[in-house]
Design a protein that fits this description.
By secondary structure, the chain is an all-alpha fold. It has helices spanning 2-22, 36-42, 51-54, 59-67, 95-119, 124-139, 141-144, 153-176, 182-199, 209-218, 230-251, 254-267, 271-278, 288-308, 310-325, 341-351, 357-373, 382-404, 409-412, 414-445; strands at residues 29-30, 87-88, 90-91, 333-334. 69% of the residues lie in helices and 2% in strands.
Length: 446
């Protein structure tokens, strides 16, 4: 029965991959947006220099757009911006390869997550159903469309999903046997590499690594892990990635533009807010001294402002969090010529809810799962660690997205809202698995 279940899961994943390759049109179809030109320009650096990490865009996108630059340059034939609105995807010179890469990484990531997650459930029904849902989740236009958009969203989603899949495998492998072996070393290297490219897709991803460091070192609370030093080594590597990512983000000029949006909408129009910053040395807006102060002190003083005003911070977080869930589709291109698209969009709307209540539902399910694990068998314990990490990661990235910029927040928070939606379904399957296993044990006992 176990072998049959595995084959059924593999068949579901294969069908999902086949559908992803066929129902959304050619993988090389792409559309540029208002940010695409900046990715192209930023990539014109020496990839072996520190400038590749401190130019306008992060290293991962600099690497990709540099590697795929055609000899006669990129060709912009499908451009969606404020003037052109929604357009149709086409095959663009150079961009075709980037769209194909984004699609392939996405397909691999969702297939890996479907396999690793389902393989760690105990009930055959839960294994099969969860594999189908995860593949469907990544197949819908709400996710797959972004693979055609020449921006950072696709890779930010796909690399997180891939890292999550690897981490699930590693967490259970170490829980089953804390001793290090070749497979775990290879898996860890793949995880570190994926995290490296992930944090250098979007700056906000960097800040989530702090939670991973804490959770890695926190494993030493449990006696079974105290004999291995590997988690200290892993924590040092992840913390080093955080440091490099933070230094890179600070030295690139993009944060100044983003925080300038915050100042224009949330700080300068309100005298009380201006007074707070003026008391901490902010010169009058528009003066040369103001620019110097902003570049040197704006980030740290803004953090002090958020801590000093917890009611404002909490209100803005939940207000804007709800707004980030209101959109679950890209608006850059349409694909009305695809016959299955209407059905896929409908299915996607069921899987990708637009309600901000997803945050609270996911939190409630996480707490329920943790409470049940205390009364369940120990093999379920890694789910607390894994789901807690994913929830905190989404929280960190959405927090920085909300407070780090006021333009395009739903798009900037896309990876975070996707994570909450995905976690809701995964937690439901974990809880269903607990229930099914308990029912099977009671039936066999009778």
């Amino acid at each position: 029965m176990k072998k049959l279940t595995q084959w059924l899961v593999l068949a579901i994943i294969a069908v999902g991959v086949f559908m992803r390759l066929t129902v959304h049109g050619e993988l090389g179809l792409s559309v540029a947006n208002a940010d695409t030109e900046s990715y192209v320009e930023s990539s014109q650096v020496n990839l072996l220099s520190w400038e590749a990490f401190t130019n306008y865009r992060p290293f991962t996108t600099n690497l990709i757009y540099k590697v795929f630059t055609p000899g006669n340059g990129y060709r912009y034939r499908a451009l969606s911006n404020a003037e052109t609105g929604t357009v149709k995807r086409i095959i663009n010179r150079g961009f075709k390869d980037i769209a194909m890469l984004q699609s392939v990484v996405s397909i691999i990531a969702w297939a890996c997550l479907a396999w690793t997650f389902s393989s760690r459930l105990q009930s055959g029904i839960a294994k099969i159903a969860s594999a189908g849902l995860i593949m469907a989740f990544g197949l819908t236009p709400q996710i797959a469309d972004w693979d055609s958009v020449l921006s950072s969203e696709s890779l930010s989603i796909s690399l997180f999903v891939l890292a999550f899949a690897i981490l699930i495998w590693l967490a259970f492998a170490f829980y089953d046997d804390p001793k290090i072996n070749t497979k775990k070393i290879i898996g860890s290297i793949l995880l570190f590499a994926t995290l490296f490219f992930w944090i250098f897709v979007r700056d906000v991803n960097t800040y989530s690594l702090i939670f991973l460091v804490i959770l890695l070192l926190g494993l030493y609370v449990f006696p079974r892990f105290r004999k291995t030093k590997f988690f200290i080594f892993a924590g040092i590597i992840v913390f080093s990635l955080f440091i490099v990512g933070e230094i890179s983000a600070r030295q690139r000029p993009l944060w100044q533009l983003a925080l300038g949006h915050v100042w224009a909408s949330d700080i300068l129009p309100f005298p009380g807010n201006v007074e707070f910053f003026a008391e901490r040395g902010m010169p009058e807006h528009g003066t040369p001294e103001y620019t110097d102060w902003f570049n040197e002190h704006a980030r740290t003083t803004y953090a002090q402002f958020l801590l000093a005003h917890p009611v404002y911070t909490t209100f803005k977080f939940f207000r804007d969090l709800n707004a980030t869930f209101a959109t679950n589709m890209q608006s850059y291109f349409d694909a009305k010529d695809l016959p299955t698209r209407p059905a896929l969009i409908i299915a996607g709307n069921y899987l990708h809810s637009k309600s901000g209540s997803i945050f609270f539902i996911t939190l409630a399910l996480l707490l329920i799962m943790c409470s049940q694990i205390f009364y369940q068998n120990k093999p379920n314990t890694p789910w607390m660690w894994l789901m807690g990490w994913a929830f905190l990661t989404a929280g960190a990235t959405v927090f920085v997205s909300i407070f780090g910029d006021t333009y395009g927040t739903p798009r900037h928070a896309l990876s975070s809202t996707m994570t909450y939606r995905l976690l809701m379904w995964m937690l439901l399957f974990i809880l269903a698995d607990f229930s099914l296993v308990r029912t099977e044990k009671q039936a066999s006992a009778n």
